[in-house]
Amino acid sequence: MAGTCPLALLAPGTGGTVAELRAGKGMQTRLFGMGFCPDARVKVQCADRGSIIVSVGDARYALSRGMAMKILVREGIP
């Protein structure tokens, strides 16, 4: 999908819109339950070492870099 990048590559303080999840069925179910649905707005709060703290809606989650690489986003919050 053109114009997308993995969530793990966004700098802290930047955000975007979820474009696609490239994960298995079990991981997709887990991410959907957390609010990572297509067109959901996400923002990277902190990206230190192994974990990335992101906000989705009113919730904040700590994701591993591997998990964040499976979430493709369109940069820039509309």
From TrEMBL:
<dbReference type="InterPro" id="IPR008988">
    <property type="entry name" value="Transcriptional_repressor_C"/>
</dbReference>
<dbReference type="InterPro" id="IPR007167">
    <property type="entry name" value="Fe-transptr_FeoA-like"/>
</dbReference>
<protein>
    <submittedName>
        <fullName>Ferrous iron transport protein A</fullName>
    </submittedName>
</protein>
<keyword id="KW-0408">Iron</keyword>
<feature type="domain" description="Ferrous iron transporter FeoA-like">
    <location>
        <begin position="5"/>
        <end position="75"/>
    </location>
</feature>
<dbReference type="InterPro" id="IPR038157">
    <property type="entry name" value="FeoA_core_dom"/>
</dbReference>
<dbReference type="Pfam" id="PF04023">
    <property type="entry name" value="FeoA"/>
</dbReference>
<dbReference type="InterPro" id="IPR053184">
    <property type="entry name" value="FeoA-like"/>
</dbReference>
<dbReference type="GO" id="GO:0046914">
    <property type="term" value="F:transition metal ion binding"/>
</dbReference>
